[in-house]
# Entry
Amino acid sequence: MRILDTTLREGEQRFGVYFPPEIRKQIALHLRDIGIDELEIGVTKPDEELEWLWSNLMNQGLSGRLSLWCRLKKEDIDIARKFNGIRLNLSTPVSDIQLERRLRISKEQLLCRVEELTTYAAQRFEFVSLGLEDASRADEDYLFQVARTALDAGARRIRLSDTLGFWQPLDLIRVVNRFRKGYSHGEISLHLHNDFGLAMGNAVTAIDAGAQWMDASVLGLGERAGIPPLEELVAFLHFRKGCQQYRIDLIPEITNLVARYSGDSWSSFKPVTGKFLFYCESGLHVEGLYKDPNLYEPFPPEKLGLSRRLAIGGKSGLASVRAKLQELGRNMDGSMIRSLTSTLREHSRSCKRPLTDGEVAEIVQQFVEEEQ
# Structure
């Protein structure tokens, strides 16, 4: 399983996102250090900033790991030839609505175009991939006919794009299995959009079904609701699939960098990177966490630069309060702890938030003085 990061192409298509050239370079180098297998650094076109980025990254030893997105057009393929050492990610729509209303060509005409231009590209680039846009709305038999035509013409990878996020996990199992059975000489890649909140679930399903490549972007940046977030995909592969080739410890740095320059903030409870993910006040969970963090934590927070906080609040139970008292070096009998728990709960609810350790210590001191 390998990851294609497209933060610098799909990610920058997010409304209002513009990365300065030097920041694009920093993002790419961070991705390299994490161990990401392929970096799609932009769209094929005459672009001095793109040429500068490509040249700098090649000098940083990224030859063979950089790619460009490219329309299935001869003139675009010719432009891409100046970028020596890159992988070429050709792309074309395949759904009926796209062929009729956008390209205005027939299915037969597209097959001829795919054969001709994939052959042309494969004769000029060491690695050619063909992306099939709007694959989830395409006739499935035709989708695989286009894939076979491209692979026979020299493409080494087929990149199926769920452009509008229509696929569901069971669809991915069927599609990936069909591809793996029928096209053993080519790799399959998925580009999954998140319009219905299914991108990450679809991604892990496709991986289990045998997809060799998965697209992602930092923070899930992309058109509309974006695509699978790189940080979530890397964390899942690291903690759940045992993939140790990716530097999980470097994830906080790149998410902060991309957030700063994209203007994209995230919830404090966002999967993998939310700073409050490991903050807990509910009685049952706090009690379990005091006994063994593995009971209620999916991974060690420190692995991603996060911290654990077990707080006392309006949802705390006796066991939580007893454990907090031990932290504070206080001993009380059972009846006193029950009375104190009620006091702490009331105070938290009046504040409409969990209590700080300082507040707990102050309330405990007052409670002890009143009991004496």
